[in-house]
Amino acid sequence: MVNAHAFLANLTLVLCVAALTTVVFQRIRQPVVFGYLVAGMIIGPYVGVPLFADRSMVTTLSELGVILLMFGLGLEFSLRKLAAVAPTVGLIALVDTSAMFGFGYVTGQLLGWTPLESVFGGAIVAISSTTIIVKAFAEQGVKGRFTELVYGILIIEDLIAILLIAMLTTIASGAGLSAGAVAATAGTLVLFLALFIGVGLAVVPRLVRMVVALDRPETTLVVSLGLCFGGALLALDAGYSVALGAFIAGSLVAESGEGSRVEHLVMGVRDMFGAVFFVAVGMMIDPRLVAEHWVAVVVLSLVVMTGKLLAVSVGAFLSGNDVRTSTQAGMSLTQIGEFAFIIAAVGTTAGVVGAFLYPVAVAVSAITTLTTPIAIRASGAVATFVDRRLPRPLQTFVGLYGTWIASLRRTPAAAATAPLVRRKIRLLVLDTALLTGVVIGTVFAKPRLLAEFAARSLPPLWASAALYTIAVLLAAPLVVGIVRVAGALSSLLAFRALPQSVANRLDYAESPRRVLMATLQLALVTVSGLVVVVVTEPFVPLGRGAAVLAVVVGWLTVVFWRRTADLYGHTRAGAQVLLSALSKGFASASPAAATAATPNAAPRDLSTVHRVLPGLGDPVPYVVRDGDASVGRTLRELQLRSQTGAVILAITRGTEQVLLPVGSERLQAGDVLALAGTTESIADATSLLQRAEHT
User: Fold this and answer.
1) How confident is the model at residue 77 (pLDDT cuts 50, 70, 90)?
2) If you placed Cys at 127, which of 85, 161, 291, 671 could pair as Cys (CB 3.0 to 4.6 Å)?
3) Dihedral (CA of 571, 577, 579, 581) sign
4) What does DSSP say about strands 672-676 and 647-653: parallel, antiparallel, or unpaired?
5) In this structure, are residues 623 and 671 in contact, taking their beta carbons and an 8 Å threshold?
6) What pLDDT shows up at residue 485?
7) CATH fold of 4-389, please?
8) Closest of 530, 518, 501, 526 to residue 401, by C-alpha
9) Using an 8 Å Cβ cutoff, are 542 and 644 in contact?
10) Hey, what long-range contacts does 121-124 have (CB within 8 A, 24 or more apart)?
11) Quick one: 662 exposed, middle or buried, by C-beta within 10 A (0-12, 13-18, 19+)?
12) Is 26 helix (H, G, I), strand (E, B) or coil?
């Protein structure tokens, strides 16, 4: 039986010390999360302060913090939202976790760790922390489109983490890992989620609406927390994380339409136990072991911050997001957290990794927890910096790429091409799996072949030469097949997004379509190659698979760069046509009449330009009026492209015409701008031009 006095003493110690450090860190304008970590170190067993809390009891309390934080996240992110973004965020999460697993494994090998320790190291740095990001967003009041993207990526990563933990537990037990075990684990998880969500949707939303109708806040709070902890317990009994169960419970409550009301009621309880969670993490930091392995801590922290920034930003951009949103998402996910602790504990408890791995994971989490709020605040400035430094052809590409992906998403697949697209996807997956099997099979066949040659008194060198020759003969067609199938699939998708007009003899969409094809092919080959490298990395000598992938990707990158140069010329030609259309439309209008025109309309219909020069999106004219705050401001000061994703293709100013204006161009009243981009980016650009706020 738990000692009630000891429980009260530990809770009092945790909250009082956390209160003190929180006030201090608030005064020095540092993240309060870091204050909680310091509080944990103060009351933990590794620092010489004569204040000691029962770590097992505090850890038990901290579980409540994880559950409530995930429940709160579910309240803000309903199942409908998750289903809407799942196809996009699933690919981003796969690229992120695969790349980070590879980076972590390579880093572990370079640090002199064993292959198994490197595998655990890769898994530790692969998953971002949901609790830390939720806390950071709440503290800074961060909202917007990119937060939904970040939350979606986090949920998919949490599901990947559950699979990783199951597989690593199997490895740690010494039972080995097979494809059958992985498939069984994934199938069981899908079945559990289907039953949980299916039954929950039939019961929970109705129950919550009925309780809210009673108009008793305390009843609503108790019922909501009951659902929260009930979902967490159900997931735990099924062998999964309490975080997963709490999130699903929150999402089911959000389906009732009362998510905001419930969130307001549970906010105080959530914040209190969330603080206890981070204090418990701080208690596990052993400064002695951290100091002993400081090189690993520093290197892994840098790997997490730079690797996740690149992987998430590139993945988010390729999925159709603008540079600013992609950069913000990437910089928000530059940390590790609760799943890193669980993964490290699996290895250390089983004794298959060194005792140093757990404190190293906690220290890396602490460092990246400290830097995450800073990175989130700086993400806008970094996005602007990156956008300004891009070469002009790439600036044109990033401004138009989002419109192509948007067109691809809203254009239904033709009945004749849909089966072909699915067939190409299956072939790409099959070639990737076969290539992985060839590489791993070669590694396992080598000892047997060497023994066979030795039994026949043949030189071992002959065995290696024969084996590698056979491996190359088997792998080369698969590599070529991946590149060719990716190219064919990219072509099908590019023609869907930018079809050739049957009314035109000339294919005006050829240049942008070729760029889109090159981009999609580069992305598909990179993802396929990344999967092969990550899966085979523990079996092959360090760097060989990555070197082959780098050669193939480098060649495709050169092709992509040449296509972007062609696109820049195509865009200049399109901008010239736009200028002609705008000039004719406003030729007879005085500047006063022009400024009186509605901002999203012009006397001349620009839809004809879209038909003649597809690939430039749907150009929209915008008339700069006297009342706009953008009057007298340069494009560099407005940061239009970096903040909204829209591009200005041309400006008409009386008899003056500006083709693809540069950052030093200063806007004047009466200017007619030809804006290109997605519907959302043009709406944001219109709002920015009217208010011209600094960010």
Assistant:
1) low
2) 161
3) negative
4) antiparallel
5) yes
6) 92
7) Na+/H+ antiporter like fold (1.20.1530)
8) 518
9) no
10) 121/300, 121/357, 122/534, 123/164, 123/168, 123/343, 124/300, 124/336, 124/340, 124/343, 124/344, 124/357, 124/361, 124/364
11) exposed
12) helix
State how far the Cα of 446 lies from the Cα of 440, in Å rounded to an integer.
10
**Can you tell me the distance from the alpha carbon of 31 to that of 373, in angstroms, rounded to the nearest whole number?**
7
CB 517 within 8 A of CB 494: yes
Q: Say which residues have a Cβ less than 8 Å from residue 303's Cβ, sequence separation at least 6.
A: 100, 103, 104, 107, 125
Both tokens of residue 285? 């930091």
| pLDDT of 544 higher than 90 | no
- Confidence bin at 427 (pLDDT 50/70/90): very high
Residue 465, burial from CB neighbour count under 10 angstroms (0-12, 13-18, 19+): exposed
Residue 2 has a pLDDT of 56
Domain residue spans of the chain = 4-389, 394-568, 577-691
How much is the pLDDT for 270? 82
Weakest mean pLDDT among 5-19, 207-221, 325-339, 607-621: 607-621
CA distance 317 to 334: 17
Helix (H) or strand (E) holding 210: helix 179-212
**Residue whose token pair is 């870091």:** 34
pLDDT tens-digit series, residues 227-276: 999 998 998 888 777 777 888 898 889 888 888 888 888 888 888 887 88
Q: Is the pLDDT of residue 35 over 80?
A: yes
Are 168 and 346 spatial neighbours (Cβ–Cβ below 8 Å)?
A: yes
Q: Residue 518 corresponds to which amino acid?
A: A
Tokens of 465: 């030469």
Listed in sequence order, the DSSP H helices in 213-293 are 217-237, 242-254, 259-283, 287-292
Helix 32-43 × helix 130-140 angle, to 10° = 130
* Mean of the per-residue pLDDT values of the chain: 79
Q: Following CA atoms 49, 55, 60, 63 in sequence, which dihedral angle do they give, to the nearest 10 degrees? A: 60
> What pLDDT score was predicted for residue 308?
92
Q: Residue 371: enclosing H or E segment and its boundaries? A: helix 357-389
689: exposed, middle or buried (C-beta count within 10 Å: 0-12, 13-18, 19+)? buried
- As a dihedral over the C-alpha atoms of residue 291, residue 295, residue 300, residue 306, rounded to 10 degrees, the angle is 120
As given in the structure block, the two tokens for residue 504 are: 């035109």
Beta bridge pairs of residue 110: none
* pLDDT, position 374: 85
For 595-618, write each residue's pLDDT tens digit.
433 444 444 455 555 555 666 666
C-alpha–C-alpha distance, residues 467 and 455, integer Å: 16
The CATH class given to the 577-691 domain equals: alpha beta
**Identity of residue 101:** F
Give me the residues paired with residue 620 across strands: 675
Which of 18-27, 170-179, 322-331, 441-450 has the weakest average pLDDT? 170-179
